[in-house]
Amino acid sequence: MGRGDKKTAKGKRFQGSFGKTRPAKPNKSKKPAVKAS
């Protein structure tokens, strides 16, 4: 387990790949965007 492990998020970050562990489009952040008026 570590950087070379494709099954972990860290391994996917290291290899620049995406999958179930590390989705290409992560869930939207909790804070909503604030409109400047």
Please give a structural write-up:
The protein has 37 residues and is mainly alpha-helical. It has one helix and no strands. The protein has one helix at residues 9-15. The model has no long low-confidence stretch (mean pLDDT 76).
Quaternary assembly: single chain
- Report how far the terminal alpha carbons are from each other: 48 Å
Integer average pLDDT: 76
Task: Give the H and E element order.
Answer: H
Strand content: under 5%
Specify the structural class. Answer: mainly alpha
Q: Helical percent range? A: 10-25%
List keywords for this structure.
elongated; 1 helix; mainly alpha; 37 residues; 0% strand
Indicate the topology:
Elements: H1 9-15
A few lines on this structure:
It comes from Hydrobacter penzbergensis. This protein has 37 residues and is mostly helical.
